[in-house]
Amino acid sequence: MSTLYERLSGNNLGEGSGKIGVHAFLAAVFEYRRGKLTQADVKTMFNLTETQVADSQEFFVVLGLAPNQERMMRVVKDFIYLAESRIDERYSTAAALFSRMQEEVIDQGGLLS
Predict the structure, then answer these.
(1) CA–CA separation, 56 and 39 (whole Å)
(2) How many domains does the chain have?
(3) pTM above threshold 0.70
(4) Burial label, 59 (beta-carbon count in 10 A; 0-12, 13-18, 19+)
(5) Is residue 113 one of the residues assigned to a domain?
(6) What residues contact residue 75 under an 8 Å CB cut-off, 6+ apart?
(7) Range of the domain at 76
(8) Are 55 and 3 a contacting pair, CB within 8 Å?
(9) Structural contact between residues 14 and 6, judged by C-beta atoms closer than 8 angstroms
């Protein structure tokens, strides 16, 4: 089974794992942050496994540390777009995405907990 990152980027998809559209997923994240969706709703919408739910929780934590949420979402989108294109290895792993998100938190003047 694929990780959440693999499903978002479309890279190394395991059998039975469908790609998740980055726009749809990030829209659901915004709705979750606004209190309009629950974590269970997001899990159901994208047919997430328990491991992928755990991945999404880590994602939500780092996302929540950014003072400017919309700018952070742009960073995530851009990263996933580059991962989808497979044109540069720097955008090929979940660890690289989380590192980039942490850099953005710091760039925005936020604190990593």
Answers:
(1) 9
(2) 1
(3) yes
(4) buried
(5) no
(6) 100, 101, 104
(7) 4-107
(8) yes
(9) yes
pLDDT tens digit sequence for 9-49? 998 887 778 999 999 998 998 898 899 999 899 999 999 99
Give the whole-angstrom CA distance, residue 76 versus residue 72: 6
**Interatomic CA distance for residues 28 and 33, integer angstroms:** 9
Q: What is the DSSP letter of 25?
A: H
pLDDT tens per residue across span 45-93: 999 999 999 988 888 889 889 999 889 989 999 999 999 999 999 999 9
Within a domain: 112: no
d(CA 60, CA 72) in angstroms, rounded, equals: 11
Helical spans, DSSP H, in the chain: 4-9, 22-33, 39-45, 50-64, 69-85, 94-107
Neighbours of 27 (CB within 10 A): 14
